[in-house]
Amino acid sequence: MKRILALGAVIMTIVAFSSCEKDDICVDGDTPLLVIGFYDVNDTTAAKKVTKLRVAGENQQFTVNTVADRTDLDLIEIPLRINSPNTSFVLISNSATNSSNEETGNADIVTFNYDTNEVFVSRACGFIANYENLSGTLGSDSDHWIQGVEIVKTTINDQAAAHVKIYH
After folding, report:
1. 153 pairs with which residues across the strands?
2. Which terminus of the chain has a lower count of CB atoms within 10 Å, N or C?
3. What is the mean pLDDT for each group of 10 consecutive residues in the chain (168 residues)?
């Protein structure tokens, strides 16, 4: 009788543990970043690095932390605001600081407009934002280093390829 009770307890324990859910660990629940590729304006299929690129949010005191500051890059990944229908970035070519601690590079402002679509991923990850109807405009400036902005993908739901091409 004791053996039957012990065997019953073992079976109940196995059944109890096998019905538990797996750990709530979020593996793939990040809001995708906007991927921008830089291309040669004379050969629109050739990637072209921007010399000493600095990227900052417009009217922000700091640079975007997803981009290495003042490096030569032909591809960047930057975050869009979730709680706003647009995000503006200052893209600075040949960024440097003079003796008065002022920026001396050539700065252009690019504004991206979009619709935010929240998607439930899982209980562990919660919601992420995808972006739809992406469009971009280049701010008015008398000395543009950016010659054009082309939207390649209007929906941002991954970071597999460039969503935007910037020609310079």
Report:
1. none
2. N
3. 61 60 70 96 96 93 91 96 95 93 93 95 88 95 92 95 96
